[in-house]
């Protein structure tokens, strides 16, 4: 089952790189969330994507959105990855890929972790889904475009 535009984003609680836990419901009614699933810390594509989100982080914040990255890596791996590339946003550890599976963010016949970004509005409704393994910057560009369209409503 894949989460689609118009669906209420499934809630979850996962550990973050700083030792805290983050629940999606904590953002409901407060701000939009750009939730991006990526395959693995410190790999070329994931580094490019994460750094693209980093480089536009202030633009996301100014648009009223929080950026959250999710992969199956450990919190410790996320901590090293975030420190190495100065990533200012939260990275969540989805051991066993339970949340990834809940969202349907798989690729390559469901065998490998996918690279999928969800734009979730303040009410918790999915407004956009971008699924591309190789268009790293597209995840950032499309999420920003969607947030601008939401603000114009």
From TrEMBL:
Positions of the Thioredoxin domain: 3-152
Gene Ontology molecular function terms on file: thioredoxin peroxidase activity
Gene3D superfamilies: Glutaredoxin
UniProt-listed GO biological process terms: cell redox homeostasis; cellular response to oxidative stress
Catalytic residues in the record: 46 (cysteine sulfenic acid (-soh) intermediate)
Enzyme class: oxidoreductase
Subcellular location: Thylakoid
Cellular-component GO terms for this entry: cytoplasm; thylakoid
Catalytic activity entry: a hydroperoxide + [thioredoxin]-dithiol = an alcohol + [thioredoxin]-disulfide + H2O
Subunit structure: Monomer.
Protein family per UniProt: Belongs to the peroxiredoxin family. BCP/PrxQ subfamily.
Protein name, per record: thioredoxin-dependent peroxiredoxin
């Amino acid at each position: 089952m894949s989460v689609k535009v118009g669906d209420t984003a499934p809630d979850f609680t996962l550990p973050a790189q700083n030792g805290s836990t983050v629940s999606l419901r904590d953002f409901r009614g407060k701000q939009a969330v750009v939730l991006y699933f990526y395959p693995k810390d410190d790999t070329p594509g994931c580094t490019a994507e994460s750094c693209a989100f980093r480089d536009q982080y202030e633009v996301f914040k100014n648009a009223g959105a929080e950026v959250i990255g999710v992969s199956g890596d450990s919190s410790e791996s996320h901590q090293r990855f975030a420190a190495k590339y100065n990533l200012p946003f939260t990275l969540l550890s989805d051991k066993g890929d339970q949340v990834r599976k809940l969202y349907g963010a798989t690729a390559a016949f469901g065998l490998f972790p996918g690279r999928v970004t969800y734009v979730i509005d303040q009410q918790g409704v999915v407004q956009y889904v971008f699924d591309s393994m190789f268009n790293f910057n597209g995840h950032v560009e499309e999420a920003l475009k969607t947030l601008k369209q939401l603000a114009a409503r």
